[in-house]
Amino acid sequence: MNYQIVPISEEYIEGYCKSVAVVSSERLFLSTFNGFSIKESRDYVLNNRKKGLPHFVVLDQQNVIGWCDISKNDSPIYEHSGVLGIGILKPYRGQGIGEKLIQKTLAAAKEIGLIRVELTVRDTNVNAIALYKKVGFEVEGILRKSVCVDGVYANHIVMAILFD
User: Tell me, what CATH number does 79's domain have?
Assistant: First the structure.
């Protein structure tokens, strides 16, 4: 497969927004079921870019098929850390794209001086957990029954990677 991983730019915001909507509609991975509006997506992307935070998209031709970003809590006590978010459209999963995408995003996080990147993942998402472990994330804890979708509870696993 021929794909590119590039920093997000304004021309990709609409595709990013659509990709988030598709992945969120699966109701399995993200904290939203409907994605976000174009305005919300644009505000998020432009705000993170202004802060110099890593945000990449994966392109198949010029179509956004996935993303990975790091957001930050603005509190000074969290200045050293960020939160990783990622999603890849279903037809493109299991092809090694996620690993390359996360590695590129983590390298950018290290470059801007972050020393900690964390994430939460549902305990039912075994493929993602394996991927996160493969790139160096470690389990730090479990948030029991922290997710409820259609009346079914799931746990969140808290994972993080520390840079020297």
Answer: 3.40.630.30
